[in-house]
Amino acid sequence: MDAQAIRAAIYTRVSTEEQAKEGFSLDAQLDKLRSYCKARDWIVAGEYVDDGYSGRKTKRPAYMKMLEEIDKWDALLVIKMDRIHRNQKNFMFMMEHLNKNKKEFVSMSESFDTSTAIGRFVMNIIQGIAQLESEQIGERVYIGMEQKAKMNGGVLGFNIPYGYDYTDGKLNVNQTEALVIKNIYSWYLDRKSMGEIVTMLNDAKVPTKNQGLWAKKMVSTILKNPIYCGYLHWEKYVNKSDHEPIIPVQSFNTVQGFIADQGGKPADFLAEETSNQLLSVYRR
């Protein structure tokens, strides 16, 4: 990085609480950073000063302007890492942005320089920690959803299925779409193929949920989804729900038998229960 003239963006910041503390003054930060650039033969491409702004926020005028002018500099230079961010997530987002634009980050006091081998090594550790945190959050979310499914806790995260609207935390039958669902089941029970059903729907200009064209995968998903019988399915859990069914369980099970007869992979057959406990399922 030192083999050519580096254009440095100098960033300084001081919060309202820090303004009275010795060593945090903006002038002191600027003087040290200018001297650092001079010692390394760097060109000061811009000085960006946020006076009276917290490091926990990203909406700082000088900070945002600096990122908007990212093409004007090669390296971002700060006196300390906490001058640029006091929030780990915001810091990682910034580092990803700098990396995508092939920019370096240098913290003078902490000798942190991503243009050096040790700097890149430390950066990899920081990114690894951030990745670990992200995966742990994902695991906790999954565990929470699984526990909710075990306890029959209602609707889990999913796209709103065709045939229903989702309002006030509940699934409500969309009467227009429900008629299409009934037709799809009726046609398949009359031994129409999924391909033929797709053609019929598209020829009739029946829109999908996203106002697009139908495909075999969509029809297959509808024919295998127990939601239309008043059940909720997540992973291996199938629970009786309180939303209004569109299709009788008997029709659903018959459809699964037809799918199996055609060499397809049916959904689990449903066994009706009167309780809201975990649903028993059995395979044909």
Q: What's the short version?
A:
With 284 residues, this protein is of the alpha/beta class. It has 9 helices and 11 strands. The strands form 4 sheets. A 5-stranded mixed beta sheet has the order 2-1-3-4-5, sandwiched between helices. A two-stranded antiparallel sheet has the order 6-7. A two-stranded antiparallel sheet has the order 8-9.
Describe this structure in words.
The structure is a single chain. The strands form four sheets. The chain has a five-stranded mixed β-sheet, with helices on both faces. A two-stranded antiparallel ribbon has the order 6-7. It has a two-stranded antiparallel ribbon with strand order 8-9. It has 284 residues and is α/β, with parallel strands linked by helices. The protein folds into two domains: 7-115, Rossmann fold; 152-282, Putative Large Serine Recombinase, Chain B, Domain 2 (Hect, E3 ligase catalytic domain fold, Alpha-Beta Complex), CATH 3.90.1750. The model is unreliable at 274-284 (pLDDT under 50). It is built from nine helices and eleven strands. The longest helix has 34 residues, at 117-150.
